[in-house]
Amino acid sequence: MRTLTQHLLPHKIVSKIADLSANCEVTWIKNFLINYFIQRYAVKMHEAIQEDPFAYTSYNKFFTRQLKPQFRPIDSNPLAIISPADGALAQFGKITENQIMQAKGHTYSVQDLLANDSNASHFINGTFATVYLAPKDYHRVHMPLGGRLIKMIYVPGKLFSVNTHAADNIPNVFARNERVVAIFETSAGPMAIVLVGAMIVGSIETVWAGKITPPHSKKIRSEQYDKVAPIVIGKGEEMGLFKLGSTVITLFPPQTMNWDPTVSLNMDVKMGQKIGTLISRENV
Fold first, then answer.
1. pLDDT tops 50 at residue 283
2. For residue 23, what pLDDT is reported?
3. pLDDT beyond 60 at 11
4. At a CB cut-off of 8 Å and minimum separation 6, what does 40 contact?
5. Per-residue CA distances from 257 to 145, 147, 164, 170, 188 (Å)
6. What pLDDT, in 10s, does the model give residues 101-131?
7. Binning pLDDT at 50, 70 and 90, where does residue 140 land?
8. Side-chain half-sphere exposure of 195, counting CA atoms within 13 A
9. Do residues 238 and 207 lie in contact, with contact meaning Cβ atoms separated by under 8 Å?
10. DSSP element (H, E) containing 154
11. Whole-angstrom Cα distance, residue 84 to residue 235?
12. How many CA atoms lie within 13 A of 146 on its CB side?
């Protein structure tokens, strides 16, 4: 029944209503939403740069609050690959030929995820990590490695939920949903960071282009950045955000990295936490 409801709901209308509510600046409305959220999820406001929850002008401003750096330290090892976001490490591992694990019994292709972009070939037999951001999590996305932006692709699509139930029951959900793909050149070669939209996600933004969605387009848009003034973002620096949460998928080429022995399926990770180690180019 939950899966059927996902198919029947008017995704974009529901998301538009959520966006309007989350951006409302009427004091009593935004304070009610913020207070409910704090009580429901036991939010640690002492971690936020602005600790007063009611100082935020809207629920979205509160939801995407910035944190004090000491609460999300970046692993200082130059070979460390860090989690790009807070969340559950829903899946991680090897890309088998071109297939990425979504959930038990479900895979999807690199080509579908990246909308058949020419860069997809770089990730065949590579590695991937899928981080699911629940409502309670910090919702800014940071760089797992430092890199130079090569391309951004907006891919239109559905807005299914991307929680565990959806991943278990909706085939190709990440490759069917609206998403923003960013391709970076790094010390490990190409790296893809995919920000996947979902039901009631109010917006996806990047630091270089601002708000990407909404509005929701019906056409794929691709922007090249390697021909203009370079956009370089260091490891641990912010690259984008979700307003109301979703999923981040990171792809690496083959023979690039080893997973940290401490990581495990569905474990909670924090932005800045080491999840892998680069393989020295001298040993490849």
1. no
2. 67
3. no
4. none
5. 11, 16, 26, 30, 8
6. 998 889 999 999 999 889 999 999 999 999 9
7. very high
8. 29
9. yes
10. strand 147-155
11. 9
12. 12
Phi then psi for residue 268, to 5 deg, are -80, 135
Can you tell me the distance from the alpha carbon of 262 to that of 3, in angstroms, rounded to the nearest whole number?
33
CB 160 within 8 A of CB 173: yes
For residue 164 the two structure tokens come to 């565990």
The SS3 of residue 76 is coil
Query: Are the CB atoms for 100 and 107 separated by under 8 Å?
Result: yes
DSSP string, 220-263: -EEEE-TTSS--EE-TTSEEEEEES--EEEEEE-TTSEEE-TT-
- Residue pair 87/269 in contact (Cβ under 8 Å)? The answer is yes
Cα–Cα distance list, 56 to 30, 166, 241 (Å): 9, 32, 17
Cβ 272 vs Cβ 236: under 8 Å = yes
∠ CA 226-203-33, nearest 5°, is 150
Catalytic residues: 86, 142, 246
Average pLDDT over residues 145-167: 89
Tokens of 48: 């936020």
What global pTM score does this model have? Answer: 0.90
Distances (CA, A) of 49 to 53, 55, 69, 72, 252: 10, 11, 9, 12, 32
Look at the block and give the residue holding tokens 């538009």: 16
Give the alpha-carbon dihedral of 271, 277, 279, 282, to 10 degrees: 100
